[in-house]
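Please review this one:
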Amino acid sequence: MKLIDAFIPIFSELSTLDQKLEEDSSLDIEMLSDQLSQQIAHSKNTLLAEGFEIDDFDKALFALCALIDEKVMNSQWASRERWAKNTLQKQYFKSQTAGTVFFETLDQLNEFNEVEQNIREVYLYCLAFGFTGCYFDVGQRSRLDEIIHANFKLLNTQSELSLFCHKVPQKRQLLDDNLLFSQFKDEVWVWGPIAFVLISYLLFRSEYLTSLSQLINQL
């Protein structure tokens, strides 16, 4: 099992979250918070039962919390100001600087460590879902594209790459030949019976990998 597998329900929720956060949305803040809390608890229990360390879970969860908080705060949802008073990053990590810490953590991941490669995959998915963090300014998007490209290659090919941010120390790492980007092969973003999940997985994976490949090729 990979870390990303346990977070499938949360990514599934995120795929429709933008629509739920429209200005006139009737989405209840307590309901959303409770739903996410339950999914996070389930992911935690699943990963711990599979032998993952709590620190590894926390690193991956931090990325998801940062992504969800950013989506909420960038929306026109009427309850976003209430959310800002008790964001997920505050609840779980007592943090208010996820936009920078996200990239600091990402930059420190070791590409020779299988578990940390699992964590990197979660961060890459968060970036693919639109997380920008400290690169929110339009003029910084090229840097963000480079980070996405770098992490894709760190999971996929052998090359010397650098992850960098004006607030993050520069770091160069070399990827082992044997660390291939196979993680995306086992992902599913939907709930449901096993048969439905498998069918949805095949359809989704093809579409996602095509979209991600197009994104990488444009960088």
Notes: The CA atoms of residues 67 and 130 lie 8 Å apart. The chain is about 60% helix and 5% strand. The chain has a mean pLDDT of 78. Residues 194-218 form the longest helix (25 residues).
